[in-house]
Amino acid sequence: MSMIKGSVGTVVTQYYHHTAPLVLESGDTFPSLTLAYETYGKLNRDRNNAILVCHALSGDAHIAGFHEGEDKPGWWDAVVGPGKAFDTDRYFIICSNVIGGCKGSTGPSSINPQTGKPYGAKFPVITISDMVNAQKLLIDHLKILQLYAVAGGSMGGMQALQWTVSYPDMMKKAIVIAATGYSTPQQIAFNEVGRKAIISDPEWNGGNYYDTGSYDAPGPVKGLALARMVGHITYLSDESMHAKFGRSLQSKDRIGFDFSTDFAVESYLHHQGDTFTQRFDANSYLYITKAIDYFDLTKDGSLVKGLAEAKAGFLVISVSSDWLYPPYQSQEIVSALTANEREVRYSEIRSNYGHDGFLLESGQVNYLISQFLSRTIVGDVMFRNVPTIEEGATTAVTARRMINLEVNHLPVLSGDGHLVGIVTSWDIAKAVAKNFLWLDEIMSKDVHTTTPDEPIESAAKKMEEHSISALPVVDADQHLIGLITSDAISTLVGRGNP
Amino acid sequence: MSMIKGSVGTVVTQYYHHTAPLVLESGDTFPSLTLAYETYGKLNRDRNNAILVCHALSGDAHIAGFHEGEDKPGWWDAVVGPGKAFDTDRYFIICSNVIGGCKGSTGPSSINPQTGKPYGAKFPVITISDMVNAQKLLIDHLKILQLYAVAGGSMGGMQALQWTVSYPDMMKKAIVIAATGYSTPQQIAFNEVGRKAIISDPEWNGGNYYDTGSYDAPGPVKGLALARMVGHITYLSDESMHAKFGRSLQSKDRIGFDFSTDFAVESYLHHQGDTFTQRFDANSYLYITKAIDYFDLTKDGSLVKGLAEAKAGFLVISVSSDWLYPPYQSQEIVSALTANEREVRYSEIRSNYGHDGFLLESGQVNYLISQFLSRTIVGDVMFRNVPTIEEGATTAVTARRMINLEVNHLPVLSGDGHLVGIVTSWDIAKAVAKNFLWLDEIMSKDVHTTTPDEPIESAAKKMEEHSISALPVVDADQHLIGLITSDAISTLVGRGNP
């Protein structure tokens, strides 16, 4: 493995062949399917440090590191690796190519097992929800009961959001970047132009152009290049294009007064369009853009209702100059989550790069995601099944319980299970000194508590302020559900978390 | 003529055949050319009430009223007609189809006199400046020495701006709406996508598709429709598309899970694309978008330098939600004009309609243009060659001069031509009463003055405040250059102006 600092090094794409059927949102069924995926870092013993990162329209499973013999790293290498936001020293990162794609997962260019030929336009129409359901099969296959997080930008952000609704208990955290809760007519319009360009190309031929078995052969390359050109404009901002190209001419001293390429921006777009046709399948472009258009998490027209089932703690990020998925769409997600009393943090990346800013502003993205992922809450690290003692006990019984269970704190509960106090070994010592016989005489009744969703930084501060070494964790009804100790927090900080 | 209130009624397109050559910016020459144009209202005796309105990419000469047998009015009927901003009761409105177009003026679908066949791709590449030079031939033909104003939105605004630079003395006023001083890379990129769509269409056939002699025959209709679809998205705003379409389905109860049209916005775009191919020539689309791309009034990278020669009084208007020609581009024009000490008024139309707002917000456009056009300045209505008298004259000489010249005011000049006072017939009466013999004893020495660029409203107010009936007009050196009287202003207001 070549060791580049901060890089995951050489990686290989793996394939999961799922041999059972998957029913799609349309009602159609895949009899079986394949998912290409890559993983980085190690799954820990508790299998609870896995993060699924979802890719955008033209992405693939290769998010970080290098494929043998290639010198171009994965598409989000800037934020995935040792010490980066998706820290492979701490997390087990998973990325899989979406179904409908052309990078190893079952898509229109795959062989239809029922005909022995490529699906082409016979491939069923899929949705973001179908993509997520397929990913769920992979996560199950990896025997991960709960993801630490799902994350993604653009269409990847839509998948992350869909995950929180389709499988609310399957993740602790969700990171949604430069995305939306539903596709808008402007987004649909741009996608439809791209599709129309492909379908209008005579080489598309009703989706049957796989004769040579490889999609970088003929096919509707002109249409696909056009689609990509349109798409690419929407990924940049007016300002970034100014900065990058201005009105610079391409290999000319003056305008040509003909229809050859005059401006650098034209040359750049042609190049983007042409190279895209070397690496992407036109039919996949049709199916994936359709899935994006269909994406709509509103319910009865309400995103608040649509996100009501989500349970994850959220980080929502937008890019200031993104006009394809403008900040207001991220803010709508934040508002809907807040209305559902979900924990949500929102940040707008300051950038002139437009939509692509989520890939290019890796400094800001690294910072925001690192801060978010390492923001452990009390619920993540508290002890559950905490030994307690009932009020009315004697000091002698209390002391024996402590010694037997080898604990230093005993929350004191009333008969109906409410937290009424806490007693420590130090209180026992006091009882001994002053000859108190009953627990009531020695326990602290003015108990400081915390809740599962309080950040550990805040809990730690509370302990320091009150010179105490543990905090009972209670629910809204003041029922005891756990205990957090300074020892546990200290250990956590020492080794990094989770 | 059918009389619809506020309409110019039935109109006919006229044709000016210019039989002399026109040299183009590229160095190519048209041996002769034709301009289709329409006019509305009457040219006054002084031939100084003409306004040239320039059209946008897909526009034509038919700006207002109705063609015989048609029930759709001209493209800017909302602002051209009796009592509207371009008031045909006061102004003589001219609109001509640009060269390169396909609406009657010489363009790629016209017959090349040298070959007897349509120009096609042999048509020379033209620029906005060439369009303006061709329009100038028409204005000369109409024997108009100076236009009262040139005006236009989008590409029409570019032409208006170009006019003020190419022919600075040819207009008093210029109205530039939703335009720019130079095309940006984003604008070029969208145009290039459109051109690429047309050229990629096999039916384009190198520009030779006029076999049937009519461009609504085969031709590259798929490519042209695509180009129009892209263009149309850029004319709308995200917000207006939300309002107009939302995620409404087109003739469906639920999404179709296929590639037929799902959303209303898709159907709308298809319709826009398809109908456009019935009325527009693909080659004209290539040539006109190229002219737009080439448009760049900066000189040595500076719009200040580029607009240095302009002399007109300007009204610059942008649309708040226009992202194709965003307000900052209009503001750059305003800044450059201001730096050149030109008179310029700027307004941003509040609208959610995007670029199309300049056509759709006719209420705001009517108001702003009306206000601007009727804002007459002192220089427009002052008397020049004003009789004066030198200081040191006797009251008797002064009185005789007044009577002989039939004037009521005589500005008093020093030996070196500076204005030092003013004398009226009332002062003469005073001299008689008090037996003053010298002009010095009776003239007002604390003279209120005005300047040629002061709005007449302001000059009128000054006269009222000081209970005087005339104001000498002076230049920056206090040299007398004219006189404005309350009688003249009163007459003007009574008959409307100019």
Characterize the structure shown.
The structure is a homodimer of 498-residue chains. In chain A, helix 1 crosses helix 2, helix 3 runs antiparallel to helix 4 (221-235) and helix 4 (221-235) packs across helix 6 (264-279). Chain A has helices at 128-141, 155-166, 185-200, 221-235, 238-244, 264-279, 282-294, 303-306, 327-339, 357-360, 362-373, 378-381, 395-405, 425-434, 439-442, 456-465, 486-495, and strands at residues 10-11, 14-18, 22-23, 29-30, 33-40, 50-54, 66-67, 80-81, 86-87, 92-96, 111-112, 117-118, 147-153, 171-177, 313-319, 344-349, 389-390, 409-413, 419-424, 470-474, 480-485. In chain A, strand 11 (111-112) and strand 12 (117-118) form a beta hairpin. The radius of gyration of chain A is 28 Å and the shape is elongated. In chain A, strands 2-5-10-6-13-14-15-16 form an 8-stranded mixed sheet, with helices on both faces. In chain A, strands 17-18-19 form a 3-stranded mixed sheet. With 498 residues, chain A is of the alpha/beta class. Chain A has 2 domains: 10-187 and 202-210 and 282-375, Alpha/Beta hydrolase fold, catalytic domain (Rossmann fold, 3-Layer(aba) Sandwich), CATH 3.40.50; 380-495, CBS-domain (Roll), CATH 3.10.580.10. Chains A and B meet through helix 3, helix 4, helix 5, helix 6 and helix 7 of A and helix 3, helix 4, helix 5, helix 6 and helix 7 of B.
